[in-house]
Amino acid sequence: MRKPVSDPEVLGNRITSHALSGSSLLRKDDGVHAMASGHHLIWITRGGGRAFIDSTQQGFGTNTAMFIPAETLFHLDLTPGTIGWQVRIPASLRIPLPSSPLLTSVLKPLNQRQLSNAFSAVQEEFITKQPMRGTALIYSVGLLAVIYNRIDTSKNRKDLEKDSAKRRLMRRFVSRLNDRYATHDTVRDYAENLGVTTTHLTRVCRETAGKPATLFIREKTMEEAKFLLKETDQKIGTIASDLGFKSPAYFTRVFSESVGQPPKLFRKNEKR
Fold this sequence. Notes:
By secondary structure, the protein is an alpha+beta fold. It has 10 helices and 9 strands. The chain folds into 2 domains: 8-150, Jelly Rolls; 165-270, Arc Repressor Mutant, subunit A, CATH 1.10.10. It has helices spanning 8-12, 109-127, 133-150, 165-180, 187-194, 198-209, 213-231, 236-242, 248-259, 263-270; strands at residues 16-21, 34-35, 38-46, 49-53, 56-60, 64-68, 73-78, 83-90, 102-105. Strands 1-8-3-6-9 form a 5-stranded antiparallel beta sheet, with helices on one face. It has a 4-stranded antiparallel beta sheet with strand order 2-7-4-5, with no helix packed on it. Strand 4 and strand 5 (56-60) form a beta hairpin. Helix 2 (109-127) packs antiparallel against helix 3, helix 5 crosses helix 6 and helix 8 (236-242) crosses helix 9 (248-259). It is globular. It starts with 7 loop residues before the first helix and ends with a helix.
């Protein structure tokens, strides 16, 4: 039986940490914005690029700290040679994160060292196989969150807090999607619950994120499927059923089309 999400080890193991470079997974060249399914903490130690956060475009350079809250549209273009760190935190994890999107230049050498050391500590726990890995990750990102809150951003913070009716609709859609992705809800079901037409919801998704609502639904389901395949020993049939698929065969087909390999092979490669 799958552990409840409230279990510290399960929640902690949903934290991910990656080194960033000019060819990072966060680098986008297709104009498609991603919707953050969790909170993102980003630290650029060399190079720079452009950030598109909540429909606001900002350039950034070396020693830039970013916080992207869950359910925020974002898109990063990293210039060649850029180096940094990116940590994703589950939205349900209660730690003292900033209250709004943040992009700021960190000028004090002490703060720069603290951030680099804290991101390195999260990465070390992320790659370890030691007992209580998830709990250790929670404590590591908790310290990182405290450092973010201590940074003096009064003079170097850039305004990212623009809002609009489209953004509010997208937040409501993604919030419901995070609760309902394992159901058979269609785009029409989501639209009716949100009080808009299917056409309007689809149009807003395309205009704000560059992709239709159907793709949002599939991506969220596949994100959870990959986590369960990688972090648990549940049978593929059980995972398919828990995620609302009619049969393991249909789940395998959708997963293979979306990820590029069948679930069994994905699990084998990820557990090496």
